[in-house]
UniProtKB/TrEMBL annotation:
Species name: Salegentibacter holothuriorum
InterPro entries reported for this sequence: PSP1-like, PSP1_C
Name of the protein in its database record: Cell fate regulator YaaT, PSP1 superfamily (Controls sporulation, competence, biofilm development)
Domain of life of the source: Bacteria
Parts of the chain that traverse the membrane: none
Listed PROSITE patterns: PSP1_C
Amino acid composition bias (Basic residues), ranges on this chain: 366-387
Region named Disordered: 353-387
Pfam family, one: PSP1
Residue span, PSP1 C-terminal domain: 114-199
One Gene Ontology CC term in the entry: cytoplasm
Amino acid sequence: MACSSCSTKDGQPKGCKNNGTCGTDSCNKLSVFDWLSNMSMPNGVEPFNCVEVRFKNGRKHFFKNTENLSLSMGDVVATEASPGHDVGMVSLTGELVRVQMKKKKVKTDSEEVLKIYRKATQKDIDVWEEVRGREEAIKKRAREIAIRLNLSMKISDIEFQGDASKATFYYTADDRVDFRQLIKEFAREFNTRIEMRQIGLRQEAARLGGIGSCGRELCCSTWLTDFRSVSTSAARYQQLSLNPQKLAGQCGKLKCCLNYELDSYLEALKTFPRTDTKLFTKKGTAVCQKIDIFQGVLWYAYEGEWMNWHKLTAEQANKIIASNRKKEDVGSLEEFEVQLQLEEEKPDFNNVVGQDSLTRFDKPKGQQKKNKSKKRRKRKGKPSKNA
């Protein structure tokens, strides 16, 4: 998806060159498509007076439009802050803001919902852009100071307030950090109010963004808003190898996408017997070696004959287990395996390009030799036999 300005011309994307500041569609992080924007309000119903404002990266807050300003997505506004004011962009307006506030359990009369002062003036925008341009250099200098003080912390991001009166330093740390001396040096070095805010590793990856192993942008920085716990059992249920390098994301934790299909796998596994359940037959005791959830089959091997695997369906395995519980005799797994082979239908692969051979355009070998001899005679100037 792209904004309405990111159209292509002659196959080449033009790009709106707003660097993620456009608000017409999904160029912003964690953007929400306003599917109620084309619907008019019923008669006598006033529009919702709260808007959603996005600041740096995915930080969003709700604000009251007490001045009844005409706001739309992408407008730069000056909002209430402590102290001074902050500058952000309107990311959502209308009735969908009410839905978002209800989803995030934010009440309109809460003290967290501040108000919008005005639409940002050119002076506000100039100051905002000027301090945004200083953030990378200050982040580098802040990391050098933290290393010099031997603090076990990582400063991952810096965000200036819109009026340049405060700078928020986002950091990650395994243990509690005593940064009292650090704040003093920051205040003396950068000459501004300092606020330290600790975030988790997943929140850090969401703020910084990046490309995942799937080739797409990280879910946490594009659309994922809640971080649910992911355990290694999710990988076991999906028959994935427990390789930390493949299962871990850029945050160092297990990938959030391991939970996406977990419910489907758990629903399919309800029809399968437990893998630690043994099958008792007259020929011997069989142990489960492997399962295939997509095909609905299991492979069993007799104890002592681990190289010979027998393929059974989940229904057949459950039938044998039921017979074992009733203490009924089961001959062998081969009886069920033969039945399974008879039920399987061989796929009918047809040649979609016809039944002709791939070498149908090649000349016979004898004809190729004759052509080569003709070429040699022509080079030597001798007449051919057919002449």
